[in-house]
Design brief:
The complex is a heterodimer of chains A (163) and B (101). Chain A has 163 residues and is an all-alpha fold. Chain A has 2 domains: 99 residues, NADH-ubiquinone/plastoquinone oxidoreductase chain 6, subunit NuoJ (Four Helix Bundle (Hemerythrin (Met), subunit A), Up-down Bundle), CATH 1.20.120; 42 residues. Chain A is 72% helix and 0% strand. In chain A, α2 packs antiparallel against α3. Chain B is mostly helical. Chain B has a single domain, classed as Helix Hairpins, CATH 1.10.287.3510. Chain B is built from 3 helices and no strands. The longest helix of chain B is centred in the last third of the chain and has 31 residues. Chain B is elongated, with a radius of gyration of 17 Å. The N and C termini of chain B lie far apart (56 Å). Classes of the chains: A mainly alpha (163), B mainly alpha (101). Chains A and B meet through α1, α2, α3, α4 and α5 of A and α1, α2 and α3 of B.
Chain lengths: 163, 101
């Protein structure tokens, strides 16, 4: 049962990512990006990453996706119902990216990964992540907060109308 | 095929589709969507390796920081895109080739 659900989520992520990449309509792209993000959150749950799954939903779906939708709506005339988009060099891009994909997959399958005896089964990762964040990674955590503040101020300054 | 490879193939697929989006799309918001796909691919890899290879949560921490960077990057990129739209009337990146109006 779990196996079936895993492959359904796997297929959901793959297909919706393809719609993001290939759809002519920008609105279809952004809505299938929603399916990709939710599907990746499901993949995180299969990897015992409960904290990451919730973070993915809250930040990606609740934050970044809303920003992207705002970006689309603010930069197109809304009266035009179909927001189409054009692409450059489709064939070349497809060939190059297909080659990169093949090389990646072959390398990943050939590589003898130093797999552990059994897959780790974390009860809950929240405790461990919290201890690491305020222990070994404290400086990185503080730098991240300063970076977020900088991004906030930068975005607000950039987006403001010149008076 | 072991359990790790299914995750690795998924992340390779996400990365390739994201790269395709970045190099073929003209619309700046669509390019941003491609970047998010690539970052998600990296996250899947980090977490898969932390489950199957290293057995600790340091990979999860990297993923947390990547998500944080993605949020900051999306906000700043959207502000730049809005400025581009105000200047050019569209957000096609192949037409944005002037540093100054």
């Amino acid at each position: 049962m779990g196996e079936v659900i895993f492959w359904v989520i796997w297929a959901l992520v793959a297909v919706s990512a393809m719609i993001v990449a290939f759809s002519k309509n920008l609105v279809y792209s952004v809505f299938s990006l929603l399916a990709t993000f939710v599907g990746v959150a499901g993949i995180y749950i299969f990897l015992n990453a409960d904290f990451l799954a919730v973070t993915q939903i809250v930040i990606y779906v609740g934050g970044i996706l809303v920003l992207l939708v705002f970006g689309i709506m603010l930069t197109n005339r809304i009266v035009v119902a179909r927001i189409t988009q054009s692409s450059l060099q489709r064939t070349t891009g497809l060939v190059v990216v297909g080659a990169i994909f093949l090389v990646l997959v072959l390398t990943m399958l050939e590589q003898p990964w130093p797999l552990a005896e059994s897959a780790a089964e974390f009860d809950s990762t929240v405790d461990k992540i919290g201890r690491l964040l305020f222990g070994d990674y404290l400086i990185l955590f503080e730098v991240a907060s300063v970076l977020l503040l900088g991004a906030l101020i930068g975005a607000a300054t950039l987006a403001r109308k010149e008076s | 095929m072991n359990a790790l490879s299914s995750y690795l193939i998924l992340s390779a697929l996400l990365f390739s589709l994201g790269l395709y989006t970045v190099i073929t799309r003209k619309n700046a918001v669509a390019i941003l969507m491609g970047i998010e796909l690539i970052l998600n691919a990296a996250n899947v890899n980090f977490i898969a390796f932390s489950k199957f290879v290293t057995h600790d949560v340091e990979g999860h921490l990297m993923a947390v920081f990547i998500i944080m960077l993605a949020a900051a990057e999306a906000a700043v990129a959207l502000a730049i895109i809005l400025n581009l739209y105000n200047d050019h009337g569209n957000i096609n990146v192949d037409e944005a080739n002037a540093l100054k109006r």
